[in-house]
Protein 1
Amino acid sequence: MPPVAVLALALAWGRDLAGVAVALVGLCLIGAVLAAVHHAEVVAHRVGEPIGSLVLAVAVTVIEVGLIVTLMAGGGEKASTYARDTVFAAVMITCNGIVGLSLLVGALRNRVAVFNAEGSGGALATVCTLATMTLVVPAFTTGHSGGEFTGDQLAFAAGASLCLYALFVGVQTVRHRDYFLPVSADGAAESDPDAHAPPPGDRETWLSVGLLLVALVAVVGNAKLVSPAIENGVDSAGLPTAVVGVVIALLVLLPETLAAVRAARRNRMQTSLNLAYGSAIASIGLTIPAIALASIWLQGPLVLGEDATHMVLLALTAVVSALTVVPGRATLLQGGVHLVLFAAFVFLSFSP
């Protein structure tokens, strides 16, 4: 799929695409996203947990940043909120959609979904801090109106986001790695988290690394080609601009969702939570600094502050997630609550 997507990019670049051509490029884009995450999973399986979840999260974030930048580069004034809408959508999808679906699948299979409260709680705290600092605080600062940071404030937020992300990665992969390993029904860490399948060999791993890079190039390039069609479709339907961010986040996180659900079905709930919260942390901790850097040459404002409705949803998500994570065990009820919050976010995005 990655070579096919690159070929489509080469043939369509610089041309005015008709409806059928846009559809074909869109299919190549979706295929490249799926391929990118598949090859990231291969690499992740080779390095093991919890580093594997980190590889997946970073790969997804690279795709997300590429899509946001390409849309902002040609979106005019309406593109000023694309980064905010996409990052917020990613937080809602990961913390409510992926977590809720994984808990539902895990609880249906084992009655109670078991995970490590220490690791998941720390990850959730990082998500809440990053989301509040980058999406809520700009709505209340007085240095710049309209939900924007001043230059100094944006630099501070970007630097703080990178520091928090680096700190989380160090804790997850080195200092407290055992907090992020899958646990058994009695709460004990599994001794061999990769026992479900043999890891790939060197040749397969390096092949996946190369195809992953090709797929990422194809995703960013094809996104540039189909972005006008996405924006025109949203405008024609009379939908809010925020829907563009929701579409981007849903597209990028769909393969991640499938990976989390597969892990939940194998009674590896901690892996599912690592994927969900790790993606949310990477989405904010890497996307905001990247967009802040790109804003140097991108035209137009960069609006990050959320409106009151989304702030309420974010606050409710933080409270519900804390109550879910603290016990280290969850049932169908917690999964259902998170899915209702996710459904509310999607509905309000289309009908604010």
Note: Residues 2-350 form a domain with the A middle domain of Talin 1 fold (CATH 1.20.1420.30).
Protein 2
Amino acid sequence: MSEKFDVIVIGAGPGGYVAAIRAAQLGLKTACVEKWVDGKGAPVLGGTCLNVGCIPSKALLETTHKMHEAQHGFAAQGIVAENVHIDPKQMVARKDQIVKNLTGGIAGLFKANGVTLLQGKGRLLANKQVEVTDKDGNVSLHAAENVVLAAGSVPVEIPPAPLTEGLILDNAGALDIDEVPARLGIIGAGVIGLEMGSIWARCGSQVTVLEAMDTFLSVTDQDVSKEAYKLMTKQGLDIKLGARCTGTEVNGNEVTVKYTDANGEQSLVVDKLIVAVGRRPLTQNLVSDDSGVKLDERGFIFVDEQCRTDAPGIYAIGDIVRGPMLAHKASEEGIMVVDIIAGHKAQLNYDCVPNIIYTFPELAWVGKTEQELKNEGVAIKVGKFPFAASGRAMAANATEGFVKMIADEKTDRILGVHIVGGIASELIAQAVIAMEFCATAEDLQMTVFAHPTVSEAVHEAALAVDNHAIHIANRKKR
């Protein structure tokens, strides 16, 4: 048995590495287990988010957005830019360099904070023992007073579309496409599907998205989903709803996708096919049967509101537990459980976790939708302000979308904010802060927002809740 730790974290993704750093900062003797290695056998930190998810996809989205703006938006602003085009290989190389810089940064943070990195696959055994199997098959045992499970998730694979190198890809493979496919197929109109579709549609691909559900982005507010569908379609994405993939056939460098929709059996021929139908928790062989940790039928670990499992001293965070699979949710859960381990009071407000889709315009929301609140019988009042009425948005050539604010009709407390807009991912933080402090619409009405800024749209939406918006005509009072 090796030395004993106060905390062992299994997984070095955005939940695990943050938990490990926080634990070390609080004076706890900490180790972090990570199995991912690169081609040279060196540990790879940061998990899916940093390596094949959030960060690399945003790098590609940013590059293609800049190119699209140059091609279609510069002329109206008096900027002459001829023959602007994408270099896919350089775009991917830049993405890879950003990932390399950040993963190296985590290794430096581990060293600076005194976190011990245990390279290998971690497995929780009984009595808070952690078994680590390295890349060569060597096994070591480590004991801890507390263990944090943060193994993350992997893409869901579907039998009708088995992954085929270079042709049928998951989210990781999609990020390494270095030539613009003439025809791109995507199975799944969720976050990953829409972001990947946006990237390549901007580059000139003919993008077809097959979504099995009859509704588009059903988790979002209906105003957001309607606006997003309109804008995505306008940008060239052919989104087919109620389209269920039934099979695929690889013919040379093409893939024939068979699917069914309201009109019966259909087929689609593409050069690349991305499978983006969701993710599943990576909990297989993560815990032994006698560890005391219980899983549900889908592989998620049962935890309470503070991420405690059924086994004393064992916590689980991030994608392997209930709630949205979001990097920032995992990070904050990691901080919460380590603070609890250190004896501090901590609680995560799950009602104030923001969601974002990084298309352009971006989609961002926090709190409940208008439909959810109405179904719950909550009396509400709604304010909405379009970016088309924002001077700064006009100057930025980004007038699509709106800010929608929902408040309780009786208490005026803000219950949800939903944004479609160029920098929705940044604006939503204002709503998160307001809701975290239990702000009312009136609180934001009385707050001074700088002019001219895009943020004024949040101010105007708050004013519109009570029909007091200044820069749009308010709806008539009943």
Note: Residues 48 and 125 are 25 Å apart (CA to CA).
